């Protein structure tokens, strides 16, 4: 079921028209459907029924407090990659012991903050980090529960910039070197090894890479137990893909069936760290057409959202579906166009070579599947204020992050005291 649909010729998020939100908060803005977030969560939770497993939502996909709170209320833990995300998780009400701290380069000060807060698990990605964490835990007089993230060297068949499970990638410890790392962890007095972690990439649309990776890690777990380690947890990471264009990602039931089959008899508690799959399709970006510029090769539709608001098309050549907010007539002709922002860079586009019904200044468009890695990756390049985030729930909506004023943006900066005032 889609939570963004045309009713009476107008695009709705659940029971609210996007046009009415635009009228109140201005354009552009991100809009999240609480119903869609809950439905995605439910599909995941239902798929896990009967398994000894839990979900730690990968907050990097969308760390808005309202989104994290919504998942927290339904029982989510959090997968974090920074102390900032940890503070968000705690502020949203996620208990510290349900937080997993991942990341390839954690600083001693960050590890200390995480241990002080009592995070439940730290996924360590190198021998150097094992030593640092051991030292920090020793200073605090605590024992840190850790997994070691291994790199199983499988091809996730996804975009090069978001694949993580190959030997060439910086993530995790090479699976062939993992036993040595576990041996080191076993010798370090302030670490308690609780399991193994992996994460092979993002926007995966097939289950086979998961199967291959799990089989490799399963063999490793058997070896590690023979080596005398107690391996109780297997953190499978995130990465399940969503629909942007015509992808056919596996259903959660299909994915879980593979996981259940390949981990049968392993006697490990499983953790999943989905990000995109829980939020991606639950969010859209709404933008207003500033002007239309016909060219001899194609028409440029210049809108008020830009690469600083949604970087995915520029950074990953990502394809996001674009729809007019006012429903076009079924027989409306289309024109070939690029949907571009006002930033003076050729890379500033949201979509290229699309056939869309004619658009005019003042029309609103909706960019679909923008709930993941949208707002979180935005910047204020060109001193464009970060755009508001809105959550719809049924017929209600609330601004869950307001647009900052230019004054607020400027007030964060300082002129050095030695610079003179500009004379009038
Ligand atoms: N766990 C770990 C250790 C991760 O590194 C990631 C994502 C996840 C979980 C969540 O993956 P997901 O379920 O969302 O695929 N900015 C890129 C995606 C980067 C993903 C990085 N790691 C994009 O816009 O496509």
Helices and strands, with pairings:
Elements (H helix, E strand, L loop, with lengths): L3 E4 L2 E4 L2 E2 H8 L3 E5 H14 L5 E6 L6 H9 L3 E4 L2 H9 L7 E3 L6 H10 L3 E4 L2 H14 L3 E8 L21 E2 L3 H10 L3 E7 L10 H19 L6 E3 L16 H12 L5 E4 L3 H4 L3 E12 L4 E5 L8 H5 L5 E3 L10 E6 L8 E8 L7 E4 L21 E5 L2 E6 L4 H6 L13
Parallel strand pairs: 4-20, 5-6, 5-13, 6-7, 7-8, 8-9, 9-10, 9-11, 11-12, 12-13, 15-17
Antiparallel strand pairs: 1-2, 2-3, 4-14, 14-15, 14-19, 16-19, 17-18, 20-21
Helix pairs in contact: 2-9, 5-6, 8-9
The chain binds ligand LLP.
Ligand LLP binds next to helix 10 and helix 11.
Please explain how this structure is put together.
This protein is an alpha/beta fold and 424 residues long. The chain has 2 domains: 4-31 and 281-411, Lyase, Ornithine Decarboxylase, Chain A, domain 1 (Beta Barrel); 34-279, TIM Barrel (Alpha-Beta Barrel), CATH 3.20.20.10. The protein has helices at residues 18-25, 34-47, 65-73, 83-91, 108-117, 127-140, 178-187, 208-226, 252-263, 276-279, 312-316, 406-411; strands at residues 4-7, 10-13, 16-17, 29-33, 53-58, 77-80, 99-101, 121-124, 144-151, 173-174, 191-197, 233-235, 269-272, 283-294, 299-303, 322-324, 335-340, 349-356, 364-367, 389-393, 396-401. Strands 4, 14, 15, 16, 17, 18, 19, 20 and 21 form a 9-stranded mixed beta sheet that branches. The longest helix is centred in the middle third of the chain and has 19 residues, at 208-226. The radius of gyration is 23 Å and the shape is globular. The model has no long low-confidence stretch (mean pLDDT 96). Bound molecules: ligand LLP.
């Amino acid at each position: 079921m889609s939570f963004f649909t045309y009713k009476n010729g107008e695009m709705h998020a659940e029971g609210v028209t996007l046009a009415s939100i635009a009228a109140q908060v201005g354009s552009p803005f991100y809009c999240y459907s609480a119903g869609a977030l809950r439905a995605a969560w439910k599909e995941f939770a239902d798929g896990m029924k009967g398994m000894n497993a839990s979900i730690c939502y990968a907050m990097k996909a969308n760390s808005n407090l309202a989104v994290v709170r919504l998942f927290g209320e339904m029982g989510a833990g959090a997968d974090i990659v920074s102390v900032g995300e940890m503070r968000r998780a705690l502020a949203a009400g996620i208990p510290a012991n349900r937080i997993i701290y991942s990341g390839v380069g954690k600083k001693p000060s960050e590890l200390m903050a995480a241990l002080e807060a009592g995070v439940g698990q730290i996924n360590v990605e190198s021998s150097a980090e094992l030593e640092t964490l051991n030292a920090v835990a020793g200073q605090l007089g605590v024992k840190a529960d850790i997994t070691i993230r291994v790199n199983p060297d499988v091809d996730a068949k996804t975009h090069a910039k978001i694949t993580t499970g190959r030997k060439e990638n910086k993530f995790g410890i090479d699976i062939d070197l993992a036993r040595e790392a576990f041996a080191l962890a076993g010798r370090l007095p302030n670490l308690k090894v609780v399991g193994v972690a992996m994460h092979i990439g993002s926007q995966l649309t097939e289950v086979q890479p998961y199967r291959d990776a799990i089989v490799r890690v399963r063999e490793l777990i058997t070896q590690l137990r023979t080596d005398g380690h107690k391996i109780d947890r297997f953190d499978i990471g995130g990465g399940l893909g969503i629909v942007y264009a015509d992808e056919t990602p596996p259903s959660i039931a299909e994915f879980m069936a593979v996981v259940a089959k390949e981990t049968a008899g392993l006697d490990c508690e499983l953790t999943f760290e989905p990000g995109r799959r829980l939020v991606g399709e639950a969010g859209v970006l709404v933008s207003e057409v500033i002007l239309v510029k016909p060219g001899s090769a194609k028409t440029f539709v210049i809108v008020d959202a830009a690469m600083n608001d949604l970087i995915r098309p520029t950074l990953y050549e990502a394809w996001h579906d674009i729809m007019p907010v006012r429903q076009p007539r079924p027989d409306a002709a289309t024109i070939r166009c690029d949907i571009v922002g006002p930033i003076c860079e050729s890379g500033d586009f949201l979509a290229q070579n699309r056939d869309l019904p004619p658009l005019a200044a003042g029309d609103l468009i909706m960019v679909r599947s923008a709930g993941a890695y949208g707002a979180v990756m935005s910047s204020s390049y060109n001193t464009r204020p970060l755009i508001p985030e809105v959550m719809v729930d049924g017929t209600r909506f609330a601004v869950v992050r307001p647009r900052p004023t230019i004054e607020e943006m400027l007030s964060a900066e300082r002129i050095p005291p030695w610079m003179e005032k500009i004379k009038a």
